[in-house]
Amino acid sequence: MSLALPQSLWAAMRRGIAGRCPRCGGVRLFARFLQPVARCRLCGQDWTLHAADDFPPYVSIIVTGHLMAPVLIVLGSATALSMVATMTIAVAMAVVLLLALLQPAKGAIIALQWWMGMQGFAARPGKAEAGVE
Ligand SMILES: [Zn+2]
Prior knowledge:
The protein contains 4 helices and no strands.
């Protein structure tokens, strides 16, 4: 458990992807599947300030599409499966991938917004808390 501020955007996003508080990394970021906690109980960061909106689903769809493309090519060309079997496998895999990627994508987007001082987050944490402008 690290309670230190992340040293980079990528470090903050890794914490968000893992479902941890991007600021301190000490506790869970999400109270429910896609609902972040209102305030981190360790560092006190207010997470109601984020506005991830539709961006996490867009990221999930793009990643799922890129991961599913080779699977669809293999299923369509290298197997003797029927069209119904191919579509059943493909749709099931796509739904599972989308659901699996949604929370990590939202955690990463919240971390990105926090680090960049976007939406309700006042300023980049390293600058604001170090007193550097
Ligand atoms: Zn925290």
